[in-house]
Specification:
It is built from no helices and 33 strands. It starts with 19 loop residues before the first strand and ends with a strand. The chain has a single domain, classed as YVTN repeat-like/Quinoprotein amine dehydrogenase (Methylamine Dehydrogenase, Chain H, 7 Propeller), CATH 2.130.10.10. A hairpin with a 4-residue loop joins strand 7 and strand 8. The chain is mainly beta and 389 residues long. Helices cover 0% and strands 49% of the residues. Strands 18, 19, 20, 21, 22 and 23 form a six-stranded antiparallel sheet that branches. The protein has a five-stranded antiparallel sheet with strand order 1-31-30-29-28, with no helix packed on it.
């Protein structure tokens, strides 16, 4: 059975000596060194990672001492991470970074309770708002905007009678959430929702047919219609889609193409409301693999530039997917890869049984990568949590 679409998770770690490996020829972890052991917090992994510039970034870290997650921020290129907001135990946390100062964290507990955390001042204070939950097993995803309007989508598990989805919206920066609409879908397992003004797209997979599915709306989510996807080759059997992305006023839909002898990556572009496929990048990698030679990761930098990791190869397109080139043929199987611009990027390598994960960075478009020397620490006083009234 072929793998289903999953969220691309990030795994990070602790401090590693800075070393330049021109072609990433070694994936072995280096000895860990700290400048000051007294204030260092050990972590076992990073569950999410996002950089807004070459220096500013956010992450969700798992602490080694307690196993608890914590939201952390860096402003110096990942060398120092400062914990900002603890995540309650037993809660799934999803990071949504809007800017270096504005961040949303979507929390879902095992009992189904959903909470949205938000900071607009770089983590100095956090707002916490509870969302009315339709059900315990519902899947949640969000589209968070740079301004005051954001969206939340909740869908019940697929059943023979269909799936019911609920759409929520805030026009007050997350202070108040309004239930906007309820609508049925048949067998959809959503993995993303994206809104741009009144237009929105839901991406996911059909539970019954295992086929990729995209729904669109032009009226703020009140009505939805299926979007047909054209498969680019006759050998293509299906495609898994990921959330729609806007770059330079161009809508892009990343997808993994499944063929008879493997898989591939391609970008759909929206032209006059129709998703048009670009040239697929053939690979036998999988987006669900957490490590190993089958790992597949992607990072959309701009309308023209996208990087794709299909370990051990790192590919790049500079012409919106019409052609691809190998920029590095010896990269490890990273758990996450994120480029800030066409030159600067970050990647995270999973930990082994007796090693820590490694944080890598590049400043030449992926040709060479460097280990980042960093540490994790707490602020002298944890930021105040501001509750919604």
């Amino acid at each position: 059975m072929r793998p289903r679409s999953t969220r691309l998770l990030a795994m990070l770690s602790v401090v590693v000596l800075a070393v330049v490996l021109p072609a990433c020829s070694s994936s072995a972890a280096l000895p860990i060194h700290y400048r000051d052991e007294s204030d260092v917090i050990r972590i076992t992994r990073v569950d999410a990672l996002h950089f807004t510039s070459g220096r500013a970034g956010w992450a969700i870290l798992t602490l080694a001492s307690s196993g608890q997650q914590d939201v952390a921020r860096t402003v110096n290129g990942g060398h120092l991470w400062i914990l900002s907001r603890a995540v309650p135990t037993g809660v799934r946390a999803y990071l949504h970074v809007v800017s270096s100062n504005t961040v949303y964290v979507l929390l879902q507990s095992q009992t189904g309770q959903v909470t949205v955390l938000r900071t607009v001042n770089g983590g100095k204070t956090w707002l916490s708002v509870a969302i009315p939950t339709p059900g315990i097993d519902d899947s949640w995803t969000g589209s968070f905007g740079a301004r005051s309007t954001s969206w939340l989508l909740s869908c019940a598990p697929p059943s023979l009678s269909g799936t019911q989805c609920e759409l929520f919206r805030t026009m007050h920066g997350g202070l108040h959430w309004q239930h906007l609409s309820s609508f049925p879908v048949v067998g959809l397992i959503p993995n993303g929702v994206t809104f741009i003004a009144n237009d929105g797209w839901i991406t996911g997979q059909n539970h019954s047919s295992n086929a990729a599915e995209v729904l669109s709306t032009r009226d703020e989510g009140r009505t939805w219609a299926p979007v047909p996807l054209i498969l680019p080759t006759s050998a293509a059997r299906n495609a898994d889609t990921y959330p729609v992305t806007l770059r330079s006023k161009t809508l892009l839909l990343p997808a993994v193409l499944y063929e008879k002898d493997g898989a591939g990556f391609l970008l759909y572009q929206v032209v006059h409301g129709v998703f048009r496929p670009t040239a697929p990048l053939s690979t036998d990698a999988s987006p669900t693999a957490t490590s190993g030679p089958s790992t597949l990761r992607y990072s959309i930098v701009s309308r023209a530039v996208t990087y794709v990791l299909a370990s051990p190869n790192l590919y790049r397109t500079a012409n919106a997917g019409r052609s691809w080139e190998v920029v590095n043929a010896r990269v490890p199987s990273w758990a996450i890869m994120a480029f800030v611009n066409p030159l600067v990027g970050y990647a995270v390598q999973l930990a082994g049984k007796h090693t820590h994960p490694i944080l890598w960075t590049t400043t030449d478009g992926g040709g060479t990568w460097t280990h980042v020397l960093y540490k994790v620490t707490s602020p002298s006083k944890r930021p105040e949590l501001a509750g919604a009234r």
